[in-house]
Amino acid sequence: MTTPSPTDLLSLAGRTMLITGAGQGVGKQTALVAAAHGAKVVVNDYHLDRAETVAGEITEAGGTAVALRCDVTDLDEVTGMVERAQATFDGIDILVNNAGNAGPAQDPMAAAPPFWETGPKEWDPWMGTSFYGVLNGARAVLPGMVERQYGRVITVISDAGRVGDPNLVVYSGAKAGAAGFSRGLARAVGRHGITVNCVALSAIRTRGVATATENEALVAAMLKQYVIRRLGEPSDAANMILFLASEASSWITGQTYPVNGGFALNQ
Ligand SMILES: NC(=O)c1ccc[n+]([C@@H]2O[C@H](COP(=O)([O-])OP(=O)(O)OC[C@H]3O[C@@H](n4cnc5c(N)ncnc54)[C@H](O)[C@@H]3O)[C@@H](O)[C@H]2O)c1
Question: How far is Cα of residue 214 from the mean position of the Cα atoms in its chain?
Fold first, then answer.
């Protein structure tokens, strides 16, 4: 028996990957890396123009991609998007639940209202994207994955969900919830050839968190906590997602992998 090379194991040839929130940042880089490894890519974003630009970059480079808009907080919209994707490609083999952002309190120097002064109006956007968005994506793709007895569900969470962020309390809960959901789901679908994992990020230089990552004093404070003293790049996250999407990770499920330069090593 010949052992496949690591390069072959990372190939996504013949697979279709749907990435939510792929119009910029981590999702965009994941789309580019997946396409470069042979995947047909469904580029989703709330902002269709962003998704179209990314899909255009992929097709110009010789890859295969389609841009589809939907708001991941709405199950009907997500289901409709998956149906359109399945009409274009055969089915979704890999779902990357990436949509989300650190939102209005993303600048930790800015005063976020204390949790005890907030209510569902403030909580719902966090829960909608970072928790319900994950459930919606999984709900929409799993029937096809179970039918085909193959699938990968990868969710981008945050170190806020592992260690907690005092300025992003509900976001922390939503991301931790997504990780707990993923562990339960992993147990439920493993016998169908489907793996479910999470990637937990610390500060990655994207447009979504630019107010934080372009604040020199804040960056200096953050870097003191990072063993590898630089901020993350979208490619740091995308490379781990590629691994979890590929055959190289076929015996890994129910896990959360920090991609964070060694932040919070004792957690
Ligand atoms: N950048 C970081 O430092 C960091 C740290 C920890 C976790 N994360 C997580 O990584 C993921 C990607 O972050 P990023 O920094 O690349 O974000 P970003 O804000 O740069 O890009 C996110 C994209 O998602 C889209 N989006 C947002 N809500 C959506 C919705 N409801 N439906 C569809 N699309 C939606 C946005 O339009 C945007 O194009 C998020 O889940 C985020 O919580 C990021």
Answer: 23
Q: Are strands 194-201 and 64-69 parallel, antiparallel or unpaired?
A: unpaired
CA of 4 to the centre of ligand 1 (A): 34
Q: Which atom of ligand 1 lies at the shortest distance from residue 133's CA?
A: 31
Q: What is the pLDDT of residue 6?
A: 76
3-state secondary structure of 160: helix
48 CB-side CA count, 13 A: 4
> E-assigned strands of 176-261?
194-201, 256-259
* CA of residue 143 relative to chain centroid, distance: 20
The full length of the chain comes to: 267
98 in contact with ligand 1, CB cutoff 6 A: yes
DSSP letter (8 states) at residue 186: H
Flag whether pLDDT at 174 surpasses 80: yes
| Active site annotation includes 171 | yes
| Alpha carbon 156 to chain centroid, angstroms | 3
* Per-residue pLDDT tens over the stretch 44-55: 999 999 999 999
- Domains, the chain, with CATH or none: 6-257 (3.40.50.720)
Write down the pLDDT at residue 199: 98
Q: Which amino acid is at 254?
A: G
Q: Beta strand 64-69 with 94-97: parallel, antiparallel or unpaired? A: unpaired
CA distance 235 to 27: 10
